[in-house]
User: Fold THMS2 protein from Mesembrinibis cayennensis.
Amino acid sequence: MEPVSFQEYIRSLDPATLPRILRICSGVYFQGSVYEISGNECCLSTGDLLKVMAVALEKVICEDTETGQTTELPPTFKGEQGCPVPVRTPWAPSSRGRPLQPRGLSLIVPQGGKQRGLTLHQAVGRWDGQPRPMLCPTIGPCALLLHPVYQVHATMHLRRDMVKIPSTLEVDVEDVTEEAQHVQFARPLLLSEVLRMEEALPTKAEILEGPAGPAIFENAWVPQLQRGQWLQLHGRSHAWRVLASAPSSGRHFLLSSTYQGRFRRRPRQFTGVQELAAGLRPKQQLRVVVTQDCEGRGDDVPPLGVGDRLEVRELRGNGPGTWLLCHRHGEDEEEEGEELLLPLDLGGGFVEEACDSKKYRLAELLEQQPLPCEVRVVAPDPELERDALGALPALRLEARRDQPFLVGSFCEEPEEGFEIPPRWLDFSILLSEEPVHPRDPCTRCSRVEELTEAFYYQLLPQLPGGLAPPPPRPPKPAQAGTGHGGRRPSSPRPPVPGPSMTNPRLAPPLPPLPALPRPSTPSHRGPPRSAGEAPGASRALAPPSALSSLPGMESDSPEHDYEPVDGNVKKTIRKMQAIFPF
Assistant:
């Protein structure tokens, strides 16, 4: 077949002969041209093959043979077209005038004394490749040329979805259906689609596009999921997972139910009575020890002291008047305890009184202890070369996840397997048709997967109750004589008058005076202490000649015998005289 335009080929195509295989011949530039097809960019290069699966009428463009005006009719147009009419004058299209709009139903055009009309689909179906004038009184009295536009549904090699191409695409094609019968149009799949194709497993697959977005695991095999890498997909994994966090280091993990390490329960810690109430479990006793003193509230709420042993029993009341019933044990076995009703907004610190020294496997632990709970790994997994959980002082098991995983391995290392979560780590692959010998690879490396911090916080909203924040604590009741939050109201303190209030220009600060040596003979004492001087205050001594130069310091008393003053004191006195030039 000689190459023809794509529009001409589709117009003359008989739908009964579908599917047809076409080859792109021309109409593309720079070895390829990108067209916007169904919202996706599709590159059609010379030599590409299209497999046309279906053709649907999209619209019909009607052109007036006299004025050249055009109007678009939808496939649901209800008017009827007349049969072909002869045109005596050559038709010359014109661009004058405005497009005409359809105006509803119309009778059939009389011909030979009989009324006979065609629907829009019938009129287009009678078109044999060359447009012929038709009459439609619903649109106007003039003859019309019908130009149908089709939507072509086709498949292409290595495209996941069927493309929808308009028949007006300006490319040349040729029909190669006969010689291309053996061509297989490979359709890529997402890894998540393979989860629903268990009958196709095991199989080999080539990665067409690696995972997009930020990484989710901190391991060695995820970075190898690149384009061109070959995988061997073995089947679905039947293990479930547990999300865990290490409070001391901020690391997060995903534990497989196949993990062989042993755990030991750690006592739970509670901050406040509200957390105590949240820690109650049906048919399980909760005994705690007070680790932080808590003040009471009058006669209704007695104080709690460090070391008090409480047995948490049940909640009483509803709404803001909810109380937690506890039993406080005596200091010894002979002393009887007392019943306490604690308000939920009461603070304090508590630690669970647990004496469980048993070592649990992961599945056994979840049967005995509801999540979340705190544990410690006392025996690492012996089959792991390096168990990251063994060195952690504490581990918080947060929630169980029944996420589907696929068991896979790289074709160059089929014995070393790993487990992929396709809903979290999805990418495009192409399945191979060559036979695969089934084998069970070792997936030890996936028993403990460390999560990236960003992915961990993406998982939190998906956990049960993850979107709901913890309920706020009720407000503390205000005590007598106190304001909001328990603080006593204080009146504003008046400003203290000082030099800054009378004179904005302050004198420079005085240098500190060193202490003078005490007199060697106690026979001569200094002047008597003034009334305002504190007892025991030491007085610095200086020669009268130095002090007499200051106003108000002239000496009327006879000369006293003072010890000589060293040079440092003299320098200090000279500095004072320079600062205060009286």
